[in-house]
Every structure is written in C-alpha cells, then in structure tokens.
C-alpha cells in the first residue's frame, strides 16, 4: 500500500514523541527516501541476509559464493616501479641500518591518529629499528618513522597481498638487508619485544625461518602464520623472498587472504611455519582477541595446533603478542607491564 508522502511527513513531525523509535525511524526513512514500506522491509531483509552470509563466511570460513571471481591482477602493476616515488620521513632515514630486530607495521592514514599513536608510544620503538609502512604522511611528523610505500595501492581487503609483497621487498631492498630478524605486526597488535627477542635467540637468522601463530585452513599439511598476531622472517628468508620470490608469478601467486598467500609463496622454497608453542604447550602469539583465547572461543576450522591451554595460562611468561586490541587497551597492557609490575618486583626483591 502506497501512502501519500505527506502522511509520513505529518507522522514524522507530529507524532515524534508518541511513536516508538523504530516505527518513527522506519517512517522517516520511508519519507526521506520516498520508497514504500514494503521496499523498506525488503531492504532490511536483504541487509540482514548479507550480514548473516558475511558472518558465516568470516567465522567459519565456508566459501558461500565460490563462483564470484576475485580480481587477482596486480603482479605487474604493483611492482618495484612504485618504489621510486616512496617518501620516507627523517626519523625513518635515521633508524639503525643493521642490528638484530627490525619491526614493521602495515597501516593506513585512517589509523595514524589512533592506533599508530598507541603503538608508537608503547612497544614499537623497543625494536632496533621501527618502520611504519603506510599510504601517506597525514597526521604524522618527521619524528615518526614512516615510508609511503602504499601511496599508489588501493585501500581494499583484496589488495592486501600486493601491499605485503611490496612491503617485504622494500624493507629488504631499500631499507636494510642487514638485520637478523624482520617482524611484521598490525597496528592493533601488542608485542612484548623482550620475549620476542628471547625466543628468536634460539634460532639462526642465516637459515630461512618463518615464525608466528600457525593456522591450518587451506594448508592442512604445513600451515601458515596468522598475519595479525605478527610473524618473523629471518634474514635468509627475506633474502630468498626478495631475490627469488618477489619477481616470480608462479612461485608467489596472489591470494585474497594475505597471510595465507605469503605462506604459500614461501612454501614454494620449502620455508614453512613451525610449532611455536612453549614447552608447556602454550601459544606465544595470540591472533584472536585475548578473551577469546582465554575462553578457548576460537574458530576450529582455522586451528592447526591443539588448543589444550586456556584460561589464565594464556597469559604466561613466554607470551609475545596479542591482537585485535584498541589503542587504550594497548596503553593499558603497556602500563601494567612496565609501570605497575615494576613496583611489584621491587617489593619482592626487598622482602627476600
Ligand atoms: C628503492 O630501490 C629501487 C631500486 O631497487 C629504486 O628504484 C627506488 O628508487 C628505491 N626507492 C627508495 C624510496 O629508496
Ligand atoms: C612517535 O614517537 C616518536 C618518538 O618517541 C615521536 O617523536 C613521534 O612524534 C611519535 N609519532 C606519533 C605519530 O605519535
């Protein structure tokens, strides 16, 4: 039934106080967009359906529309020729050129004022060199170490692999090839850098290593490292990537899941992730939210290593990273670790 336009306008104006919010909202939308009630309901239905489909696909990994092709072009377009116009900040140029641990974070200008501030205030500068790779210099000053590597790459989930591919090449080729370890994290990751260093000291950087939280989905045999909780490539692995993989479309093909694609590319040269749990079977890198690990509320189809440790043992002395944190959670964790804990340990020392 199509009601006259002015019916809704009168309703909206006169009945605001008496209308229940949803009814009012619906009537106002109907009035503003000049569509019938049934179209509005249809829109809501389609929207809800899309949402459910998205949730199912994201949470379970079931491919609901495998027949919709994804644009996988970009091998030639997003190549090293983009690197001649990259701008690097003064702080980036002043970072150490060699050392043990180089940390890099992939971000975008949307998060410069929020997430980037938080990591830059906390763990990021504890590495021997720290590099933000982003699309432009908005809200950043010369004292922040950044490179505009992604200035010609579109902001899209489906372009993530091209970003990482270019980033790894840029770091090794243009920044430095003389670090032992290259650690990648997201801008919503917290990293306990001391624990990362201690763990890496067990391995030889001249051998190809690929270290992080191992997932299994689509790579059931060897697995791949989750992107969000961070992963490390040894100098040898970086060299193999930059010299043998970057320029080879067959060995290093596109996939829309960026972390999976990186692992598939490295696996072409037999570089595989390893089981990084500690001797008590506790995970060092946590890719889901901390409370999901705590409650063992994890997406089973992704999991490679058994989940037999949860509850408070998720937070243990060998923990390296946590993911999906908001900026204030990052500051809170940092404050607890380096501020509050100091006082606790001091008292312990006094008492003995
Ligand atoms: C990076 O290195 C390539 C050569 O490998 C060069 O063409 C490009 O200009 C360099 N870019 C920067 C920003 O140093
Ligand atoms: C990042 O940290 C550096 C050094 O502590 C500081 O000078 C710079 O202003 C910070 N940048 C941002 C964006 O917070």
Automatic annotation (TrEMBL):
Q: What Gene3D superfamilies does the entry give?
A: 3.90.550.50
Q: Note one Pfam family from the annotation.
A: Fringe
Q: In which pathway does it act?
A: Protein modification; protein glycosylation
Q: In which compartments does the protein localize?
A: Membrane
Which GO-annotated molecular functions does the record name? glycoprotein-N-acetylgalactosamine 3-beta-galactosyltransferase activity; nucleotide binding
GO cellular component: a single term: membrane
Query: What membrane topology was assigned to this protein in its record?
Result: Single-pass type II membrane protein
UniProt entry keywords in alphabetical sequence: Glycosyltransferase, Membrane, Nucleotide-binding, Signal-anchor, Transferase, Transmembrane, Transmembrane helix
Enzymatic class = transferase
Kindly list the residue ranges recorded as spanning the membrane: 28-54
EC number(s) reported in the record: 2.4.1.122
* Stretches assigned to the Fringe-like glycosyltransferase domain: 101-268
- Where is this protein chiefly located? membrane
Q: Which InterPro entries match?
A: C1GALT1/C1GALT1_chp1 (IPR026050), Fringe-like_glycosylTrfase (IPR003378)
Q: Which family does it belong to?
A: Belongs to the glycosyltransferase 31 family. Beta3-Gal-T subfamily.
UniProt xrefs under PANTHER family: BETA1,3-GALACTOSYLTRANSFERASE, GLYCOPROTEIN-N-ACETYLGALACTOSAMINE 3-BETA-GALACTOSYLTRANSFERASE 1
What name does UniProt use for this protein? N-acetylgalactosaminide beta-1,3-galactosyltransferase
Q: What is the lineage of its organism?
A: Eukaryota, Metazoa, Ecdysozoa, Nematoda, Chromadorea
